[in-house]
Amino acid sequence: MKTHYIVEISRPEQHHVKVTLKFTRPKGANILKIFLPSWSPGSYLMREYARNVRWFEASQSNGEVLFHEQQAKGIWEIDWKKSSLKSELKEIQVSYEIYCKELTVRTSHVDASHAFLHGPSYLMGIIGESLDTPTIEFRFPTLWSKLSTTLNDISKDRSLFLYSAANYDELIDSPVEVGCHETDGFEYKGKPHHLAYYGEIYPHKQNLKEDVKKVVEAVAKHFNEELPYDQYLFLTHFVPKLYGGLEHLKSTALQFDGRKLGNRKDYLNYLSLVGHEYFHLWNVKRIRPQELGPFDYLNENYTTLLWLAEGLTSFMDDLFVYRAGIATLEEYLEMVKGNLEVYYGTPGRNYHSLEQSSFNAWVKLYRPDENSKNSSISYYLKGGLVFTVLHSLLLEKEKSINDLLTALWDDYKLRPEIGITKEGIYSIIKNIGGEEILNKFSTMVETTQDVDFETAFKKMGLEFKWHESEQPWLGVEWDFIGDRCLVKNVTLDGPCYRGGLNAGDEITFLNGLRFLKEDAEKFGSMVIIDRQYEFIISRLGKLEQLEVTPVKAPRTLKEITVADRIKAEKSFKF
User: Residue 211's domain is classified under what CATH number?
Assistant: First the structure.
């Protein structure tokens, strides 16, 4: 089916986008269902984009209104049999208006300064119909001078912003930035790589373009520099307190606090984000679990393999920054140490395997609450650490993660339209490392058995240095409202958990004395380990008395040191 979209932004300060979809009525069709996706590939949560639709209408080209009604949260049905028409015409148009005022990588945001248009959140499709080379035209204020996207530019001149895509999937997988943003770019392997920056940054001395190029080169080397695109776009929103990224077929949308680029640690973190999303070009957008394509945009697409999609990517992203020659080995190990600290501080690792964490992404990972750390583990976090262990195991066989990436890419090219299964991944690992390594890896994926990371790192010339604290520990995180002290969450089986404290409780008195923010911050210096203390709390407006006994704080990972530099560098360099 041939379709043409017109996207109009006339009053950006009001945050509305009008979309008109024009097409020819399919022969013999009496009913058509128009839909807006409920979620975005790469972000596994039902976003319910239809909540932002203000109005919807369907008509013939002569203006006669077609009968239509909303059938579900994101579905509108057009019924010709119920329409009162003087004459039935073939040319149809659907128009609707979308409210766009949520600045994330998975939503659209329009205001007086710019428009970021995220395909699934504003472009409707037609159920049961394949869109053949859809075209899309953008109309926006004349003061805006730039449009950045990887859609195919078919405009004859700059008086018209007209683009096309191969199909609906590609159309909505191509984010668009419109405004007066900064643009730059570089060539690699004869292909343009565009950089688009929206927002403000503090002055810094980093060579951002050169370092992004280094990351691109480092990632591409792992796939024999096969670039599966004709152009690529790195689109970054530099906005305070924002962080995140979302992969697309030929681009990525990134968000980062532009004030932090001058800080070395934060800058490396940004480049890791760049590497993470760019690596997704191969791993996820092409090498993918079978369940993730073709997509059902209206319902959950369950898979137990997000440990491959995101876990493998999370292992590689920091490593790319090291292999690109930007981070030192010590800086890389510091990033890894941060991940291990979070892992050891997550009791939920004992309750959810990587497979379970993946399957439950739709209701857990993207909907964290005060109990999340006690009930589950992130497939990003544990997945990345598990692939570190796999890399260590493969090194003993004179193989490495590089061999796995090569094999996964070769497997993809044999059947690019199908996707991979767990059995397929396991078969590849077995072929590379043998059955013993596969058994160890599958145990880490399928069970909650704790993983011996320390031994794996020792085999790569590294040592864990632990910190044994003598400070009292409650196993609680605080929230503050002014000077008032509330419980944010409690750690499973910690002192506050055993004492009966709940998230949301306000601590009013400790041993008869008023307990405020300053007291919570100095708690460790005021109490004694193994001595019982009386807490008076306010829970749902009612005062209650609880008894809590602080214990010695758990040991923490202080640092990962290099015991054998030659072995360590050989383990992690390309």
Answer: 1.10.390.10
Alpha carbons 523 and 283: distance in angstroms, whole number: 46
Closest listed residue to residue 301, CA positions, set 253, 365, 355, 361? 361
The C-alpha atoms of residue 545 and residue 528 are separated, in whole angstroms, by: 20
At which of 407, 430, 462 does a domain end? 462
Q: Three-state DSSP class for 434?
A: coil
On whether both 233 and 164 belong to a single domain, the answer is no
The residue-averaged pLDDT of 28-56 equals: 97
Count Cα atoms within 13 angstroms, Cβ side, for 3.
Answer: 25
Q: Are residues 129 and 24 in the same domain?
A: yes
Average pLDDT over residues 194-218: 97
Residue 126 clears pLDDT 90, i.e. is over it: yes
Pairing between β-strand 3-8 and β-strand 135-139 as defined by DSSP bridges? parallel
Helices (H) and strands (E) counted in the chain, each on its own, are: 17, 30
**Distance, first Cα to last Cα, the chain:** 47
Residue 355 lies in a domain: yes
> Does residue 158 surpass a pLDDT of 90?
no
What's the CATH code of the domain at 481?
A: 2.30.42.10
- Taking residues 206-228, report their average pLDDT: 97
Closest to 115 (Cα-Cα) out of 5, 40, 17, 236: 17
pLDDT of residue 157: 85
CB-CB contact of 486 with 478 (8 Å): yes
What domain range includes position 140?
A: 3-178
Which residue(s) pair with 148 in the sheet?
177
Q: Are residues 427 and 480 in the same domain?
A: no
Yes or no: say if 557 and 340 are a contact pair by the CB < 8 Å rule. yes
Identify any residues that bridge with 3 across adjacent strands, giving them in sequence order: 23
Q: What is the pLDDT of residue 369?
A: 95
Is 290 within the bounds of a domain? no
- The amino acid sitting at 198 is Y
pTM for the full model?
0.96
